[in-house]
Every structure is written in structure tokens, then in C-alpha cells.
Write a structure and sequence with these properties.
The structure is a homodimer.
Chain A (H helix, E strand, L loop, with lengths): L5 E2 L9 E3 L21 H8 L2 H7 L5 E3 L2 H9 L6 E3 L1 H7 L4 E6 L10 H13 L4 E6 L3 H13 L2 E7 H4 L3 H9 L3 E5 L5 H9 L7 H13 L4 E4 L5 H20 L6 E5 L4 H17 L4 E7 L8 E6 L8 E6 L21 H8 L3 E6 L4 H14 L5 H20 L4 E6 L7 H7 L4
Parallel strand pairs in A: 5-15, 6-7, 6-9, 7-8, 10-11, 10-15, 11-14
Antiparallel strand pairs in A: 1-4, 2-3, 4-5, 12-13
Helix pairs in contact in A: 2-11, 3-5, 4-14, 5-6, 6-8, 11-12, 14-15
Chain lengths: ~425, ~425
Amino acid sequence: MVHNNTIQLPVEDMPTSWYNILPDLPSPLPPPMDPEEGPSRLKNLGNIFSKNILMQEAAEDKYITIPDEVRDLYIQSGRPRPLIRAKRLENELNTPAKLYYKAEFYSPTGSHKVNTAIAQAYYAKKEGYERMATETGAGQWGTALAYACSLLGLELTVYWVRAASSWKAERFRLMQLYGADVCASPSDRTEVGRKMLKEDPNHPGGLGIAISEAIEDVSTDEKAVYSLGSVLNHVLLHQTIIGLETKKQMELVDDYPDVVISCLGGGSNFGGLSIPFFKDRIKNGNDTKFLAAQSEVAPNLKGEYRYDFGDYAEQTPLLKMCTLGHREQIQPIKGDGLRYHAAAPIISALKAAGYIDTLIFPSDEEYVFQRAKKFVQTEGFLPAAESNYSIAAAIDEALECKNSGEEKTILFNISGHGFMDMHGFADVLELQ
Amino acid sequence: MVHNNTIQLPVEDMPTSWYNILPDLPSPLPPPMDPEEGPSRLKNLGNIFSKNILMQEAAEDKYITIPDEVRDLYIQSGRPRPLIRAKRLENELNTPAKLYYKAEFYSPTGSHKVNTAIAQAYYAKKEGYERMATETGAGQWGTALAYACSLLGLELTVYWVRAASSWKAERFRLMQLYGADVCASPSDRTEVGRKMLKEDPNHPGGLGIAISEAIEDVSTDEKAVYSLGSVLNHVLLHQTIIGLETKKQMELVDDYPDVVISCLGGGSNFGGLSIPFFKDRIKNGNDTKFLAAQSEVAPNLKGEYRYDFGDYAEQTPLLKMCTLGHREQIQPIKGDGLRYHAAAPIISALKAAGYIDTLIFPSDEEYVFQRAKKFVQTEGFLPAAESNYSIAAAIDEALECKNSGEEKTILFNISGHGFMDMHGFADVLELQ
């Protein structure tokens, strides 16, 4: 008998709108604010973001139409992506649970980040900008935006956290192949960068610092616009394409998740998968569990829920977030995309309202990578270091079901592939 | 308007049989032979191959049913894979030609090699073998078989051409992650390996040498079976899944190729795409053109059509092939998978019968990689170094159409992705 564990969504059934959770949140999202001192960051937003993006950031409509050109590019980038029933992993674990994973790793650049990169580059181009600037941590976001800018005919400058860029030369080159101008951050191109380099010429950098550099860059160039790969409302909006597709796919097999899992750094892949399911829980009061997999080096959901800056140099407005503090020094790990001091405002609000559980994994990453190895050897796909956390959490849940006998339906997101980051696996698992 | 350039084949429409061209060839394929001297290689085949594989090697049926478990694993590995109309590349080239590429790069290990790896591992398991041994050149084949052996629960030993293994550490580790035992070839594990190492301790190796090592390995272990990733009839048989899917996909958009293109080393990806279309040309006498893209370091289709060994140490039977000679020293290039001294017997016979044109690209690879860069920047996908040759040939054809005004339909295969081989792009295009 042929078992079809791959749940394809026909292209014509790809969602035509993104889902905006803002009007459906249990209580209104606390707005961004200016700090008591210094220039107005809120007023500066108009200089650094495109108009459409700012409108989406505070949109009131529950559904926002995906422009046709963005839909074309989603299809070009391989959407809709498959949902896969992990039958082989289930057998290996001998669990009564049903495991499903969304295959965002089937992406031209290796991750889910293309979903918002395409949208942001599209609006920038539409509004006449010639260049974008951004930061990147693990490198997945920079690559995704380099891809989108290449396809849409925009220049791109990428400020890449030095700690990650130094061991990911191949990803550096991929961004260059797409035509992007990439520099290690802190760089000598900005005031904030030069200041940090003066303190320490080998400063490892951090996402918050790189954000500051990119914002400073575009603030002085009218033809350039800033782009952020996570955290903000519009980014999560674009990423809902993941969960919206997944809901349709689960309907095709007449199933619905009891547990929705993903790793969480800034929150874009976690939010992308989960937000359309949060909608049901908020509206219908069902008991779906939402589980965020984090590293103990940056357990931001365990942080205080308060107003904080998004970047190191305090160039962003204050956002109400679960935060470790915007100047927290975060230890390097292979799952570099999880190293951010705060969770997206939307995710933070949902956490504060009691909708999200967290699972914190140890910083040596061996537990996580060993579980990921089990996935590789049964399902055959090589996940990104960040996705290993989603897998580890899903396996933990499945093993709990084995003990309890519960036949839970567990959904998780494999947000990227690890072909460019084998070094991570090799180091953690001490391969040759 | 939404343009759907991605032609998905529903899973339920995936072909249920492979197509065996042997009975449809213009004249019977010259059989393998023993050399005049030495032990019988033909008799030894029973010691090194599984029974099912040997039966398929000389099968007389035109269609051979794909076993259900193999079909399951094909689906697990992401089949059917999309066929993509390269509208964005067409626009960039300003050509009246229609370009389609088969997206074999959407593969768990990065290439089309999984198609035969799954089948070969399945038959080995079914016949009670516990271990497989193989050689690999570019590393794509070794990774594919490591994947298949992992999913089917078999051990694997990989002899990897040292010239390639030395600059592809990440792929080395990926094979290990799947659980394979990988060594650089020539190795000290076999007589032939030790002999070559004695001559030169840093011997760069070659596919022919690695084949000799793997054959010697399994010849002395009853529980082990040999597996070859290209050249032989059964490998091309399994790879016809590529072309069979593609034909169905082209029917869905009511089109048919005037030109079928792929790169050619041993011939498995070229054959996989083209053989189902050869069938039509042989049977109906249509004028579809078949174009093999090769490197000037190994233009085996321009070689003599005669009986030759498949390996350096003369352990294989003699096969009638277009060959450069089985001891030809082949200069290293980034497209390592194209470095084989001879073309598959089936492909060689079709070439000798006048059905195949060849396009030979210069060994510095810049011409090829520059054209591939154009593909990356328009279509967004990162091809394997070998696939860059397919792209270069397709672009050359499309530009000819621009000059002649012909609206040809050009089909090509992107047999793998280049995420693990960015070093190749970086070296050839002198990226930072």
C-alpha cells in the first residue's frame, strides 16, 4: 500500500490574504512609544520604513490581500510548501502521537524568511526605493532579503552579526551571489559601529547592534529603506502564510493540532505557524497548547513584560515585549537565530495572556542536536540549527504521549534547512 | 494577475512504473563482456550486485513496476518534484523561447541521486543484505545513498574521491550524520587503494579508482552489496521517474520540448530526464533535439565508441561505451560529477545512433558559472556545480532563439542544489 504522508496544497488553493491577529487579540496591543528623552523614534519611522509596511504594522483589517506580484513570487519560491506526517519518526519513537511538520525548508534560500522578504521588497520597489538595508543574525534573513531584492531589482546592504558571519563564509558568498553588499557588524560604516569597534576591534556583535547600524544607514539616504526580518507586526503578518496553508492542509486530512510547536527567537517563524491557530483558541476557547522552544542563552519569553528598545543603540521606539533587556549579552550558540533579547510584541502579549508555554533547552545544544539527528535519520531532511529546537520539543511531547498513552496531534515547523550550517552539527555532535 | 509558473503533479499522479528503454532502442544494446584475460568479471557480478538489480540491468519489459515501499520513499523524499517555467529568466534573456526546468534540487540530500539510491537500498534490504558499499565523486551520490541506507536500516561504506572530499568537509559530515562510514579514496582499506597510496600518499583519486575499491570491499563480504550511482542500465531505469513526471507535467500545460538538455558525466541525470522523450523520437520520428552539456576535461561523448572497463582497476566487465579510456587522468573541476571517463551504455548507444548533440564547455568554468549566476539572480535557486552546465547550455539555446526568432520549447534538468558547494561559486567567480 502506498502511504501518502505528504500533504500537498494545490497552488490554486494557496491563501489569497494574510491574517492580521491585531483586531482579534484578547486585549489591544500596547502601542509603540517614545522614550522620555532624546529624539522621537516614532517620528523617524516614516524615514526608515515604507508606507505600506507602516500601515500594515497597525492594520485594523483582519485579512490583508496578498498582492498578485507577491503571490507570483510566493509560487516562484515554491509555495505552497508541503505538510508532512512524520510517520517514520513516530514509529522510531513508538509514540501514539501524530506528528506533522511544515516543510518551510523547501525554500530557495533555506528558510521561511523569504515569506516576508518578498513582501517587504515588493512594497519598497512599489514606493520607488532603490536600496534596502537590514541586519542578519544566523544569516538566513540576510540571504532571504538578498534573494527578494535580486528578484525585484533592488540593491541591498546587509549588516551581519560578526559572531555568526565568521563561521558561515558560504552563506556570506550566497548573499553576494544574489548581488548583496554584505559587511560584518559592527562595521566601520556607521557611527554606532565605529564606536563599538573602538571599544573592541573584534567585537562579536549582536542582532541589536546590527539593527542599529542598518537603521542609521537608511536614515541618511532617502532612496534607501530599512527592513526587519522578525519581531514586528507586519513581519508576523506576512509569515501567517505558513499557518494559513497548514490549516488548510490539516483540513485535507481532517485533523487539528492539540499542540503547536516552534522555536522562538524574535518570533516570526513561531508566529507564522501559530497565529492562525491562536485565532481559533481566542475565538472558540479550544484547548490547543502553544509551545515555544528556546535556548537558555536567550529565554526571552521568561523575561519581564515591559517596554524596551528593539536594538542596542536605542534607535527603535519602545515596544512592549517579554524582554531580557536590550543590552543583554547573549552567549553564542549554533542556533544563532534564537539569540534575540525580546519576543515580538504580538507573541509577548499572547504569552502575558497565558496562551504560550515555553521549553528551555541547555546552551550546550547536545540534547537538541541529538534529537535532531534522530529526525535526520528517520525523516531524511537536514534541519537548520534553529529548527533542531522545534524538533527536540516535538520529540519531547511525543515521548510524553508515549508515557501517558495520549494520541495527541502535534504540529511543528521546520523553518529552514541546515545545508549551509553543517559545521554546527559537526561541532556539537563532534563529527569528524 | 497571478502567473503560475510552477507545474505541480499531484502525488496520486506520480508514475507507478519506471520506463525501460532497452527493448525500444534502435538496435539491441551490445552486452557486457569479459576481457580476454583474467578472471570472469561477468561471473563476479552475482557477488557484488543484488539479484533484483541484475535482473533490471537486462530487463526486457518496457515498464517495471515501482514497488510500493519505493513509491512511499519517493513521496517521503518530496516526489513528484515541480517543473518550473523559467519566465523570469526568459524575460532577462529577452528570448522568444520557452524555458522549463525540472526542480530535482528539491531533494532531501540535494540531488536527483536519491531516485536510484532508494530503489537500490530497497532491493538490498529485501534480499537480506546488511551493508552497502559505494564510491562517490562530487559527493552527491554518497549522500543520497547514505540517506537511503539510513531510512531503510542498512550500513554503508563510502569511498570518496579524495580530490573532492578534501574541499567538501560539510558533505562528508552530512554522510556521517546519516550514519555512513566514509573514507577518502584511495584508502588503505583495499588492495587497489593501498597500491595507489604507495605510489602517491596524496593521490587525488578518481571515480574509477573509488569504484574499484568499493567492488573489492563487497567481494570479500557476503553480507555486503555494491551500489553504483550512475552509468548502468538499472540506474538510468530508476532515474526515468524524472522524465516520466516531466512528460505528465508538460501535458498539463499542453507543451512538448523541442530541445531536452542536461549535463552529462556518467549519464544518470541526463538519461533520467531524456529517456522517456527519446522513446517518442525513436517511435514517432519526431525531431526533438537532445543536448548533453559536458566539460572539456571529460568530453566522453566525443570519445571512441568501444568496449572499455568502468573502473580503473579493471574489476568491472567491459561495457560498450563512448569512452576516453578507463585510465584517462581527468583534471579536477568544480563540476566534479562530470568527471567520468565514459558515458552510460544506453546513452552511448543513442549517441552512436546519432540522437545526441553535445556542447563542451571550457575547463575554467567561468563561462558556465556566469550563466548560472544569471539563473540564480532571476529564478532565485542555487544550482549544483554540475547543474550550472545544464543552465549554461539552456541559456545558449535560448539566446540562439533570440537571434533566429524561433519560439522553441527548451527543457532542462537542475539535478541538484549548490548549498553545500558555495565554495565552487566563490572560487570560480572570485567572490570574497
